[in-house]
Amino acid sequence: MREVVSTKDGPQAIGPYSQAVKANGFVFVSGQVAIDPGTQQIIAEDISAQTERVMKNLMAILKAAGSGLEKVVRSTVFLKNMGDFSAMNEVYGRYFTSAPPARSTVEVARLPKDVLVEIDVIALA
I need a labelling partner for 43 at 20 to 30 A (CA). Which of 34, 37, 96, 115 fits? Predict the structure, then answer.
């Protein structure tokens, strides 16, 4: 069984993908960037502010799927500059205070809309 998850509380997809898909007891959330769902515009601030917005977007989509950050088992963080790791990690850590998920963090050449960070997650439904 496969169910597409969509919510107005998260940024609308900027391409041919779903905000998330529920399947076999999991929620697969597409990579989120620092788009404000109210304006559909990128918040053009620093890495900390962008990470904060990304985490809020992830929370909204997980909630729409009947899940939450406490059920995240895996995340991938894509950074435009690994020099931003500490600042991103500080914000990220405020959302995963106990039993954090498994995670990979990689530096990439470029991200959609030239944002500084993108994060995707897999959670239990």
Answer: 96
